[in-house]
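Researcher: Here's the sequence for the chain we discussed earlier.
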Amino acid sequence: MAKDVRLAKCFLIISLLIFAGWLLTVEPNIGRFGLIASYYPYVFISPILAIMAIFLLISRNNYWLLAISLMIIVLFIWLGPIVIEKAPRFLYGFKTLGFTDFIIRKGTVEPSNWNLWYHNWPGFFILSTAFIKVAGLNDMNRLLIYYPLFLNIFIIPIVFYVVHKFSSVKMNYPGAPFLACVILFIANITNQDYYSAQSYAYCMLLVFVGLLVSCHQFRQNLPWYRLLVLVVGFAIIISHILTAIIAWLFLFLSLLAGKKSNFKLFLIIGLLICAWMIYGAVVYFDAHLAGFIESFFDVTSIWKANIDDRLNVAPELQILNYVKICFAIGFGLLGLWGCLVVKNEKKERLLIFMGVSLPIITFLNSYGGELLIRVYLLSLMFTMIFSLGLLKKRYSRLALLLLLMIALPFHILIHYGSEKTDLCPHTTLAGKDFFERKAINSIILGGYPVYGTAKYPEKFRPIPWTEIIRPNNKVSLPTNKTKYSILDSIDDMWWDRYISNLRYKKNANKVLSSDNNNLFYHNGNVYMLTSGGHLS
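Model: Thanks. This is the structure I predict for it:
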């Protein structure tokens, strides 16, 4: 077997040389299908060799070599785009950053302010504030840039813990936790790892499930384990409502799986969720509860928001979405195959209960077009564990290796395929910074979700162009605040790629047309006008 170790070392040396050479020479290129244009074909040899090294070492205790292999894959997926772009991506990170900005400045939360509605679940933002204060972080843009990389590195020990508690495969394959991370990272194309409460809550859910199974395995319940389940559960409850409901569902399934002593935990977590909805998130739920109930079983609306609307876009995005659907189906079938292999394992039985229960949340229509994405993300923890069962047979192990090797380039294509709308250009950052300094306490038309959301969010009222110019628009604008109309390159991209309808751009120009032509700011790609103006 020493031959396998020597071969793995050779693979890793070649992999590191290719990856380092690419990082030093890569030129930024965002093409029709996003960032894939910057990934020269030869560079994919690097992570593929790292995957092969993991399979060569999977039954050995060469943890340093396994760790190097895993880090090459992690850095390939998340560090590469940082080096190429040097700018924040996934624009909604700016919006969530605003909830933290308020706490940093004021030292408190403000759940009753509708611009700060996420303060109804302040856990993540309070934790972020503490981290920013301790780290002395001044440039918030850097937080948005590096957050996905560090989040996924943080997930690694959590996955190790979950695999240790769940999988019986680890006894014969010491490298199984490293492979589980690879499966999770390559399969996760959801773009839900940006700076947000749901990405943090997902990590906490992994911990929660690991603790739950630990309780499930013990014949005698250890009080400190149960206390940890409560603490982690409460951390989820005050951070993200959907994840909290999923955690509660998993507790219920542990009762069905035979762990009757978890009944008290089930009641306490349920009471905490209800109490938080009534007292902690009352401002939000008072306004939305009726809508939640009304749309709960609206299957037609679910299909439209998650399938039809995502395929009725610009041609290149339509192609990417079809690829994404096929990719998700492929990993779904992989998880099902693994589930059939491990179905007789006692350790995995609770996992199977949890995995097959996830379609229940597809009726939570309030999540709109993100619903199926969230279901897929939640299912990945089970796909990850079940897939390890494929290591037991030589042919299934080979199939798993081939799937991961083929899937990795498609991961890059899908994950970074819409960079023209996800990436925040430096011209937009400059315009945003200028606007936040010079136009406090105003109404913003356009530029959503970047302008007026990341800093002083309580002083701005940002309104997307799509909301302003839609048919039967009922947006009422206060007359006692200055109105700024913004046309940014990010607006152009949204109109051309997502809405794919020039009618919106024409209507936006009508809104901008006015006798009061007062140019407030421009830098070539960003135009700001006060009280109207005309852009041709």
